[in-house]
Amino acid sequence: MLDESAFLFDPETPHRFKSKEQDAVSVESASMSLFTDFKTFLTRYGSSVDLFQLVDSYMEVCEDNESLVRSLAGKLRKGPGLYRFEMADGMHKLMKQEKQTWRLISALYKDRQASATYDDENVFFFQANNISERKAVEKLFEVNSDVRQAQIVIDWLEQNAADEIEGEADRLRNYASAVSWENTLHRLNRNKEQGIEDPNLIYEMDPDAPTRLKREIDDLDREDEKQLLKIIFSFIRAGKIEEAEDLCVTHGQPWRAATLEGWRLHNDPNMNNDASEDMGLVPIEGNPHRDLWKLACWTLSSDETNNAHERAIYGALCGNMDAMLSVSSSWDDHLWAHYKTMVDMATERHIQQTANIMKPWQCVVKRVPLPDGYWKQNIDLGDCDLVFNKIENSNDQIVREESDNPYHFIQRCIILNDMEAMMDKCLEWLDDASMQLLRFLVHIILFLRTLGVHLQTEHCDKTIEAYVRKLIADGRTNHLVATYTAALPSELQIINYSAFLEAITDSNLQKEYLELALEAGLEIPAITKRVVESIRSIGGVNQTVAPDSSIELPVTIDDQRKIDSIEWLVFDPSQRCEALKQCNAVMRQFLASRKHEAAHDVFVKIPSDSIDILYNEWHAQADKDVPLPADADNAIREHLCMKAYLGAHTSFKEWFKHLHTSKPQEYQPTIHQTSTFGSVSIPELVAEEHRQKVSADKISAWDDKLRSLCDLVCDKIYNVLLFPQGWLMDMRDDGDSEEGEWRNHQMGLLRRVCIPYLSNLLLTVLVDTGGRYKECGQLANVLASEEYKLYELFTKQEGKEIMKRIQKALIKTL
């Protein structure tokens, strides 16, 4: 027997279904399509007034997939490869169990949601007027939810069984015979013709002949009888009494069909004024001698010498649980037997306790009491949990194993309305549960929660979160992540969806998943901010300044991730302020690590119109006279500071490259002397002069560009040194926060590193560009100015060194 639980708790499900064979691929495709289908219906009907339309859609999806996988299993059964068949068969069983569970949820919660209201007139009528058995039981079902819902469970179990024998009646009719015990009749006729008497064979053909005569029927008829009784019971088990009766008639046993009708409750419309005067007398309904019939059924079903399935047939009709259990081989069968008995006893007890039930006029004797064994079955609607405990401890190993099946446990909790036990069990399953089981659990939780059923919030969140992580881990279901993340609390939404987005590097997918998040109602600004901050924290955010400021460190893979992470914040124009803040933070990290190239790559990730967009976004929600918030204003200012610094550094690199790699070589004359006899021709002299002129022009052009680049570097660096109100200095206080304090600390460190660094670069440029020594004095004045107080950013050692360099340069001007 295939262990279906392996498909529920194998962490690799549904990956375990991967196979090169087309059939196996089809099974996997069918199972994977469930995830998308359930999400589609959840978004379509999840907020609908009629939530049960959603459950019906779930059932339909499961039924379609069950049919498909069953078909595949049928094909694989005939071909090679046992494992592929077991795989398909296992999935078929799971789909069937899930469909059945959704069917149970729909039936029970429809009843639980329906508000049964009864006016005083109806109650008075029920108590004061004489009524028939059927009317009394109908009233019982109307007012007693326990009885009504127990019957719903019976109907559900019977519907499940009916699915299994669908089409069975039509198939059996092809083999039906209008004569019962055909082989026995043939032998009797043959013996009569031959004058032979068989002492073991019955000689009369009435139904009671074997018992009365203590003789046997023909062996073939006995086997046919066993099969017929087994099939009749399967129809009774499936709630198809009419089909069972038809089967009896078509097999030559109309008398047995009549015995299956005796359970119907008596009702005489003529006595209850249910029939209108125009209709006259109408037929009486039900069995007026039901008490006698039930006693006979009990006696037959209690006699262990009778066929087990015959006992079970009549045991099901009269409430004999032991008779039904004798042929029960599954969890469903045992549950059906117990609930069938419970409802039968509840209705029988109600009939006996109702004093105003009319006695049928056909009854000439006092009502026949039921035997003590009926009432000693010790099963009551108030002890339904004991029923399940009894089934779990059944002597049948298969039944005990089926009790551990997750679907049966969930069905138990739904029937008992024990959501606490279900959620506790869900928590136990999380580590080993497959995606299929988690999908099922999550959709039950979402349905019940929307319906208003109380569930433990923490347990629900953990279950949904586990499902979200499974969807993330399986790349084929990434498009579903946003929908189910939205079912989590805000904090968990941000944590889980940001963790999901961190691994997405393709820009098209990034945009797609953000759009899905927007459709699902997720907090995109908070999520994308966390994505960037999480990636930014790789390697730690508290980097110290590189000890050797002259060394440009290479861009690592982690650095590139930090650079690319800024793209998460530029999709939505409303997030440009946050984009600026995060961009500034990443650039501060890179500058502290002496990674100017990386800082520049981050800077260019921000669209050039971002500041304009930020102002437009603000003015769209506030008056033009209202200034930007302090944090936004400071972010813009810091971004402009970074722009100035990176521009200065880039211009220095261009100057440095031009100075050291672009300088043309000085021309070396090829003609060193000429003789009076004209050993060098005039054309050669002209060519030599031309080459010297070209070389001089190149050097002159190079020198002009060098001076131009020097001027550019000076302008760019002075833009930083003389930045209005100070480079990397906030103009407005945006409040005290841990993040703000760390930012201020970083900017302070960068000022102490970058200002001396740029000052030395400027001094180098001035000294190495044609001896512009006098301008070094201007730099000294700027650094020493009390207006800018840049000298405060130098350590004593740094101050001494740069002043010594300036002094050497100025000496050369003397």
Fold and architecture overview:
Keywords: Acetylation, Centromere, Chromosome, Kinetochore, Membrane, Methylation, mRNA transport, Nuclear pore complex, Nucleus, Phosphoprotein, Protein transport, Translocation, Transport. It is found in: Chromosome, Centromere, Kinetochore; Nucleus, Nuclear pore complex; Nucleus membrane. Functions as a component of the nuclear pore complex (NPC). Plays a role in the nuclear pore complex (NPC) assembly and/or maintenance. Required for the assembly of peripheral proteins into the NPC. May anchor NUP62 to the NPC. Involved in nephrogenesis. One of its GO terms (biological process) is post-transcriptional tethering of RNA polymerase II gene DNA at nuclear periphery. Residues 1-7, 9-22 and 116-128 have low confidence and may be disordered. With 814 residues, the chain is mostly helical. The chain has 37 helices and no strands.
Broad shape: elongated
Strand content: under 5%
Instruction: State the separation between the terminal residues, measured CA to CA.
Output: 104 Å
Uncertain segments are: 1-7, 9-22, 116-128
Oligomer: single chain
Largest sheet: none
Mean pLDDT: 86
